[in-house]
Specification:
By secondary structure, this protein is mainly alpha-helical. The longest helix has 26 residues. The protein starts with a helix and ends with a helix.
């Protein structure tokens, strides 16, 4: 019974942030737009409530955490009610090809969600870091201590582990299945985030292409249900790009607030997102210089980012004498042509998406040079991705998993240029190429669905395994 209550409380946590999102996204034309910050504000808000309570010496208790969170949600409900805004449903596809893209996206998403909810944690860092500290905090009722400089993983940002802690406390047992729901939803949120970003920058067709390219990237399916924090951080990072673009277009304080707040949540999820904060500042300064963004909105955005992200890093500095743990093995970085062209040289990891990413980056860079940086949409996407890629190549190119951190904006760029390239083809070519392209998409979808579910033979032999049997499978097969 308590487990069912835990699932219900989790649903309430997610739903309660929606009115705030609708009120802040004040002119949404597509229902996806408020849904995305609602997911960000719910998971981030819950973690921030728990973090603040711990700093104040208040032990983790389901009742107090939930009551404080809901109390913070009430103003959002009141503002939403007073605004008179209604629920806007996500727009349905307008063409048969878009419907096909949606069906393929749902198939891949379903497989990822099934894997997340069926199996307990099995990957190394998910077990040894995020699940471990989530379980430890549930048992101790407070944050993991930081006694000295020798601490590494205790200083990792804890948005995801705190969500695990809440799931364990609410369930009354180490309910890994409920815990895995949060990072899986945030990872899957990268798909509509890539869609919305490409749609706002170009068209709905580019949006569907961006989301599909991301879903069919083998690395996405491999890590989306793993319990790692790379794709959850990518969700926040991509969402910050969406509201940074809206700020450029409208110069509204709501977009400035959301861009900064969500970038702060990215840094509260993974410390690699600290790279994104100066990039956000550069974009804001560029907007001010081009008379697209007012100074006060620049200040509001950076203030919101600092208020969300800074407390965690200040705590690390005060208690352990460090801002971030030294867990990037920079001496192992591989400064080679193979890693520089990683999206091409690893087709098993990035598939066709990698080729389109490289082509689109070159095309966008060429366009910016020719137009003297006048195409703001390409400038945003390259600013959000190329410095991150340079940091990866220089310091941590031993692990291509870190490229997931900015993969959705790259897929948005690839989706835009794929549509531009397709439209420039002669009509006769498009007719002849359509069937082969669709067949490739179907084959890649089948591969993505198959690869997204782990230990398939064991599921087929005993689909109704209990928790102990599943842990035995993972112990045996790992």
């Amino acid at each position: 019974m308590q487990t069912l209550l835990a699932w219900l409380l989790t649903a309430i946590i997610f739903i309660s942030a929606y009115p705030w999102a609708v009120w802040l996204v004040d002119d949404a034309e597509d229902g996806w737009l408020p849904l995305l910050p609602a997911l960000a504000l719910s998971t981030g808000g819950l973690a921030l409530v728990m973090f603040t309570q711990s700093l104040l010496g208040i032990p983790f208790l389901v009742g107090s955490i939930t009551l404080v969170y809901l109390a913070l949600a009430i103003p959002g409900w009141l503002l939403w009610w007073r605004s008179g805004r209604t629920i806007i449903l996500p727009q349905l596809p307008q063409t048969r090809l878009a419907w096909l893209a949606l069906i393929l996206l749902l198939l891949v998403s379903g497989a990822i969600l099934l894997n997340a909810l069926y199996w307990p944690f099995s990957r190394d860092d998910a077990l040894a870091i995020y699940h471990f500290y989530g379980q430890q905090m549930a048992q101790s009722g407070t944050l993991a201590p930081l006694p000295g400089l020798d601490k590494l993983y205790e200083a990792y940002p804890i948005l995801i582990p705190l969500n695990y802690t809440y799931a364990y406390l609410a369930s009354g047992w180490i309910n890994e299945y409920l815990a895995r729901l949060t990072p899986a939803l945030l990872s899957l949120g990268c798909l509509p985030a890539a869609f919305v970003l490409a749609k706002q920058l170009h068209s709905a067709t580019a949006g569907w292409m961006a989301a599909l390219l991301l879903a069919l990237t083998p690395a996405f399916g491999t890590w989306a249900s793993s319990g790692y924090v790379d794709l959850p951080m990518a969700f926040f990072y991509t969402l910050a790009a969406i509201f940074s673009w809206r700020l450029w277009q409208r110069d509204h304080w709501q977009d400035a607030l959301l861009a900064g707040l969500i970038m702060g949540l990215a840094a509260f999820t993974k410390n690699a997102a600290l790279i994104g904060i100066p990039l956000l500042a550069l974009w804001l300064l560029w907007g001010v210089a081009r008379n697209h963004i007012r100074w006060r909105n620049l200040g509001l955005s950076l203030l919101a980012c600092g208020l969300i992200a800074a407390p965690w890093y200040i705590r690390n500095l005060l208690q352990a004498g460090l801002l971030i743990p030294n867990t990037a093995w920079t001496d192992q970085a591989q400064h080679t042509l193979d890693t520089l062209l990683v999206f091409i040289t690893r087709p098993g990891t990035y598939s066709i998406t990698g080729l389109l990413i490289v082509a689109s980056v070159l095309a966008a860079a060429g366009m910016l040079i020719r137009t003297r940086f006048q195409v703001a949409s390409y400038l945003l996407l390259l600013l959000w991705t190329l410095p991150f890629f340079a940091a990866w190549w220089l310091f941590v190119s031993y692990d291509p998993r870190f490229l997931l951190l900015f993969l959705p904006p790259l897929c948005a760029l690839a989706g835009i240029w794929a549509v531009i390239g397709w439209q420039e083809l002669p009509a006769g070519w498009r007719r002849w190429l359509l069937i082969p392209v669709l067949l490739v998409a179907l084959l890649l979808t089948a591969q993505a669905v198959w690869e997204s579910v782990e230990y398939k033979d064991n599921i087929l032999r005993n689909p109704l395994m209990d928790d102990a049997a599943k842990h035995e499978v993972i112990s045996r097969e790992s």
